[in-house]
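Sample entry (320 residues):
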Amino acid sequence: MSAATAAVISSSYGLGVLLGGPVYAARGEQGLIWRLDTQSGPWAVKELLLPLGEADAARDVEFQLAARAAGIPLPLPRRTCDGRVVLPAKEAASAWSVRVYQWADLADGQAVPGAEIGAVTACLHQVQHVDPRPVEAWFSEPVGRPAWEALLSDARRGGTTWAATLGRRLPDLIALDAMVAPPDLALVKTCHRDLNTENVLRAADGGVIVLDWENSGPAQPERELAAIVSDLAADVAPLAAQAAYDAYQAGGGPARLSRVADFAMAVAVQGHLLQFYSQRALDRAESSENRARSRKRLDHILAQPLTMSRIDRLLDLLAR
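Predicted structure, serialized as tokens:
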């Protein structure tokens, strides 16, 4: 980020005089994070690598404010001086649109245990907030056999390192698609939809802080909870998933996991992520960084994908 862009952003969001140049802080799937130090304090500027319309951004800010009021720790979003959430790329003198948050100081290298993630999720699921939009296909529809077969064909034709693993996993992934069905609209409410060990982090003051709300939107709480415990079981350990579920119940979370159907969102998201990362990794127009990140994500998911047998084991574990 150039100093000129930082100055425009500071002026547009009313952050005050800059005390130095922008400092690169982090990279996520949806954006690059920069720190701006100003007379009003430090701010996080996210350059949005994926398109985000103002209406959708305004909805996620509304949800964030409701969550913050309910006690969920999160960095407050900042609006421009004229009331917008997103500053378009052209106005920001940037290659990407941007949005701004309060800066959050994090504790380095301290993972948040499953129990604390479960407790935060319980609190979040008690926030009374409804998103009027339909549930997007990314969270509610299967990839489908033709798309899976095309994915494998493209991976093999590209001579990729993950084609062999994908080929071995494909029968299970296709079979899993059969259990993906639309959520019960009577149970849908606004959810974060990306709660995991990358977005629930340890704050410098010792508590936790929840980041990356751009994916928030309508979902069935049972299905979000199932996605969370699935990720914890795969990325940390099954006992972390069990601890999260126990803490969720102890914290008054309303959802309960008892059916394979509860994992429909986790299955849908896994399929769409594999499709997204595979296509990005094979796209020569993508940056080398994006392609490398995508290959790493593919290897991670395919090493321990969600399958029907894993779902059955998780349900048995959580029923104890």
